[in-house]
Amino acid sequence: MSLILQNIAKHIVLTPEEEALFLSKTETRTVKAKTILQNAGQVCQDSYFVNSGLLRSFTINDNIVEHVLSFACEGWWISDMYSLLSQKPGNLFIEVLEDSEVVVLSKTHQDQLYLEIPKLERFFRILIENSLVANQERLMDNLSLTAEERFEKFCRKYPTLIQKLPQKQIASYIGVTPEFFSKMKARMLKK
């Protein structure tokens, strides 16, 4: 069974016919590192499921500083949810960080699948709810935890990403500058 079907099977059961129909509405792509799959200012038309590799979503502020919103590694979904759901221009870039294989599901096909396989609406509702919970938790962490505590939590939650990501992207994700992150990490190693 493909990884994306295993991901779906965690929440709903599809018949073999439904699995085949779902897969017929997707496209698998191999993408090179540094490829931008989504640009800020564009209306997002696709969701991406990562079969292999690593992606990130980020925004760039007026001072040309990047702020990482999320990472997606094998078995995870990523998209500009605001833009995808509202069909308004988004604020996020989605970048491939290492050579990856992604399954692309267009909004058009996703909407068709909701009609043809209604239980897929439940699956995507669960994904969106989980995303909402994670984003709320991250917001609360940013308001109440120190940078060290946020980094420690990141290490516990995403242990496989620590070795894969550049320090400046981890710093951006936890909300500190690369310089502060470097000093903080040195202090933590001394403890």
Structure report:
By secondary structure, the chain is an alpha+beta fold. It has eight helices and six strands; from the N terminus they run ααβββββαβααααα. Strands 1, 2, 3, 4, 5 and 6 form a six-stranded antiparallel β-sheet that branches. A hairpin with a 5-residue loop joins β3 (46-60) and β4 (66-73). The chain is globular.
Descriptors for this entry?
191 residues, six-stranded antiparallel sheet, 6 strands, 25% strand, alpha+beta, single chain
Number of strands: 6
Question: Which residues sit in consecutive blocks of at least 5 with pLDDT less than 50?
Answer: none
The biggest sheet, with number of strands, parallel, antiparallel or mixed sense and barrel status, is: 6 strands, antiparallel
Strand content: 25-35%
Number of helices: 8
What is the typical, i.e. mean, pLDDT? 94
* First and last CA, distance: 46 Å
Q: Approximately how much helix is present in the residues? A: 40-55%
Structural shape: globular
Spatial extent as radius of gyration: 18 Å
The assigned structural class equals: alpha+beta
- The helix/strand order is HHEEEEEHEHHHHH
